[in-house]
Design a protein that fits this description.
The chain contains 19 helices and 13 strands. The protein is of the alpha/beta class. It has 3 domains: 221 residues, 3-Layer(aba) Sandwich (Rossmann fold); 77 residues, Orthogonal Bundle (Tyrosyl-Transfer RNA Synthetase); 70 residues, RNA-binding S4 domain (Structural Genomics Hypothetical 15.5 Kd Protein In mrcA-pckA Intergenic Region, Chain A). The strands form 3 sheets. Strands 1-6-5-2-3-4 form a 6-stranded mixed beta sheet, with helices on both faces. A 5-stranded mixed beta sheet has the order 7-13-12-9-10. Strands 8-11 form a two-stranded antiparallel sheet. A hairpin with a 2-residue loop joins β12 and β13.
């Protein structure tokens, strides 16, 4: 297959949404200009039933590599997803990620390829991407094989991870399976004989483990492309673990609404890492912010663009009209999604959880305490308030989510 050297795509690969490239951007650029067909991959562990918008950062890189003619692998970590990648949470209560069963992982990954197709041309006839599952090789490893792989790393190397240092200071446990995770991810690179791994900057340690293993086993250099992460103003990563991420399974209205709830400080980086905007376009967005343009205007452009790229322009237009009707014009005559409930009376926190606007009662309580919950446009201040569901036309708003509630008859 002919390898393209499109300067615009190469520039985008090297500079758009990039935190760091190892060994260097210059070395990767030189490699891309050789005309050699390279193998690139990113792994996606099915630890939840849907991919989220943060995953699209790497997917856009994979699509750019695919457009150049390189071999691209979309790896579903159906084995590593069961081990549990170490948690990077700063919360003192945080520990290792929950270890999932084989059945849970298989259920979670059902939609992954279809969702990825919104960003990657999965079935391109000239250069289709490859879908692989790492259980294919990890399930064949014997215990002695794992021990042999473990000899390539030291405990001191593992403990250099900042999250482990924090756990030691907080006297929180570090589990052995967490040490095994970088070995497994690194072994993926060896088995697939990759030249480049793409991932978020929070995966840098694991990607570097693979870089070492490729050097040890294949005697070649593996490039690491670490992308920027979407974070809140306090530096907390937005992701499925934190419960504040846009799911690719969300409705267009919810995608649009969640983007509109982003902090103003996230607008430019979101254009950079979550859209197909070119580098020149991003510079224009920066200039508009610097000139004092109302951030709300730019955020609506951002929300429309992201929604249209994940769904369609038609859906994005409807989502924007819905948002403007509900949150700006206060028009309750617009068509609102409806959910049914069988209970006639229920505490507010339980209602929020039952309607899937929160994963737990504690999260529902926090939303109420933050003033994010309204019923019929009246802010609710007590999470244990009993709600009479027999009232007509109950409209519940939780942040940017909204639904009309009906009693199931």
């Amino acid at each position: 297959m002919e390898i393209k050297k499109d300067p615009e795509i190469i520039e985008r690969i090297l500079n758009k949404g990039i935190e760091q490239i190892l060994p260097s951007k210059e070395a990767l650029k030189e490699k891309l200009l050789t005309g050699e067909r390279l193998t690139i991959y990113q792994g996606f562990d099915p630890t939840a039933s849907t991919l989220h918008i943060g995953h699209t950062v790497g997917m856009r890189k994979l699509e750019d590599f695919r457009k150049l003619g390189h071999r691209v692998i979309f790896l579903i970590g159906d084995f590593t997803g069961r081990i549990g990648d170490p948690s990077g949470k700063k919360d003192a209560r945080a520990s290792a990620r929950e270890v999932l069963t084989k059945e849970q992982v298989e259920e979670n990954m059902k939609k992954y390829v279809e969702q990825a197709s919104h960003i990657i041309d999965v079935n391109n006839k000239e250069n289709p991407i490859e879908i692989k599952y790492n259980s294919e090789w990890h399930s064949e490893l014997k215990f002695e094989d794992v021990i042999k792989l473990a000899t390539e790393f030291t405990v001191q190397q593992m403990l250099k991870r900042s999250m482990y240092q924090q756990r030691l200071e907080d006297d929180r446990p570090i589990y052995l399976n967490e040490f095994l995770y970088p070995l497994m991810q690194g072994y993926d690179s060896v088995i697939m004989d990759v030249d480049i791994e793409v991932g978020g900057n929070d995966q840098l340690f694991n990607m570097l483990a693979g870089r070492d293993m490729v050097a040890n086993h294949l005697n070649k250099e593996k490039f690491v492309v670490a992308g920027k992460l979407l974070t809140t103003s306090d530096g907390t990563k937005m992701g499925k673990s934190e419960g504040n991420m846009v799911s690719l399974d969300d409705t267009p209205e919810n995608i649009y609404g969640k983007i509109m709830s982003f902090e103003d400080s996230a607008i430019i980086v979101a254009f950079e890492i979550l859209t197909n905007a070119g580098l020149d376009e991003i510079e224009e967005y920066k200039k508009r912010i610097e000139k004092g343009e109302n951030p709300m205007i730019l955020k609506k452009e951002l929300a429309y663009r992201i929604t249209s790229e994940i769904t369609s322009e038609q859906d994005a237009t409807k989502a924007q009209e819905f948002f403007e009707s509900i949150f700006q014009k206060k028009d309750t005559e617009v068509e609102i999604p409806t959910k049914t409930i069988s209970t006639q009376k229920i505490q507010l926190a339980d209602l929020i959880v039952e309607l899937e606007f929160a994963k737990s009662k504690s999260e529902a309580r926090r939303l109420v305490d933050q003033g994010a919950v309204k019923i019929n446009d009246t802010k609710k201040t007590s999470y244990n308030e009993e709600i009479d569901m027999t009232q007509s036309d109950l409209i519940l708003k939780v942040g940017r989510h909204i639904t009309k509630i009906k009693i199931q008859k």
